[in-house]
Amino acid sequence: MTALDPATLDALTRARYVSLTTYRKDGTPVATPVWHVIDDGHLYVWTEADSWKVKRLRRDARVKVVACDVRGRIAPGAAEAEGTGRVLDDAGREKVRRLLGRKYLMARLGDWWAELSGRRRRRPIAALEITF
């Protein structure tokens, strides 16, 4: 993969949400708006381990990310990039949890509540790393 140009990297970094597109077996794209954080040129996402996006990513590593709003609406000219994704191990997942907590207050609160309520043990979380 090639590195993103600085303007695209900056626009994706500043975006509150990105539309993460993964691909079904038949090649149909499926886009989902997600919280994200960029660190050291990689984009990271936090999601439930049994989500369809994780299943699709394990089968086909191709992804596309586009800056969007909370509903997944993409503005004309929004920053976008294509790359490959992978599911991280436990150490990577903890790194992503900390990074997202710095960017999103609600991520910290949700993480605190998941720990307190026991939800984290019942619904495992996966961290995804997107490389451009």
TrEMBL record:
Any one GO MF annotation of this record: coenzyme F420 binding
Top-level taxon of the source organism: Bacteria
Record SUPFAM superfamilies: FMN-binding split barrel
Keyword tags: Oxidoreductase
Pfam family, one: PNPOx_N
Domain Pyridoxamine 5'-phosphate oxidase N-terminal: 5-129
InterPro entries registered for this protein in UniProt: F420H2_bilvrd_red/Heme_oxyg (IPR052019), PPOX_F420-dep_Rv2061_put (IPR019965), Pyridox_Oxase_N (IPR011576), Split_barrel_FMN-bd (IPR012349)
Example of a GO cellular component annotation carried by this entry: cytosol
Protein name: Pyridoxamine 5'-phosphate oxidase N-terminal domain-containing protein
Species assigned in the record: Streptacidiphilus jiangxiensis
